[in-house]
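step: validate -> pass
step: tokenize input -> pass
step: predict -> running
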Amino acid sequence: MARDIIDDRLIGALHLRALTHAGLEHDPVAEHTAVQAGTLEALMAGGYEGDTTLAELLRLGDLGLGTIQQLDGELIVFDGRAWSAGADGSIRELPLDTLTPFAVVTRFVADVTVALEGPMPLDQLRARIDAAAPSRSPVVAVRIDGRFTDLALRSVEKQSPPYRPLGEVVAHQTEWRVAAATGTLIGFRFPDATAGVEVPGHHLHFLSEDRTVGGHVMDITLVSGDLAIDPCDELHVELPDGVGLGVPGAADRDEIARLEGGGPTG
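step: predict -> pass
step: emit ->
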């Protein structure tokens, strides 16, 4: 098992466990966990190849997000199936042998359900998620089924070696707007102390009911819908051999914060 090197701010807020592929044999339902492949720090440095298949990922969770090999679209895991939103706005279901360098999933079982009525812009929606989430759980998985307007979505172009750092890739991301869509908003809220391992704050992807619209959410307004929250007691991180969980320096934390302004890919 890889050695855990954990920021002291994380202690008492989140049990973060590093896992090798062999260590992925556990029961995510019983343990009430989110399971992650790779780290944001590695992705930021240009680690886009991936060594975890979607088959492995879906064995551990039926709801989640991330990216796929060579950053070829935004990954959306929904009801146990995997979809990608490409830079051209297209949606495609992915084969199970597709690799991912960075993704997080959970076996979603809602502990909290709330009916929401809008219009509710993204800032208010985030606040509503925080208000409904159990205070004991710094990490929560989120699913909102409903009607939405003013969607601002994004993805990035497929990358080729030699890979540029993530900050340079995201600077040339593709963005588009959708006036209205019915579908599902999925994602996670992570505490600030996970910077470098995960994306701090709310990280949300959208997939429309007819599977024609999707992507990383930069902005959105809820018209009406149903919020479901699954609090996660642990975050299990799958690491390639020789990779540890490091604490990012000040420059890395600043870059993570800058990317989160538009939301990093994944």
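step: describe -> The two ends are 25 Å apart (CA to CA).
step: cleanup -> pass
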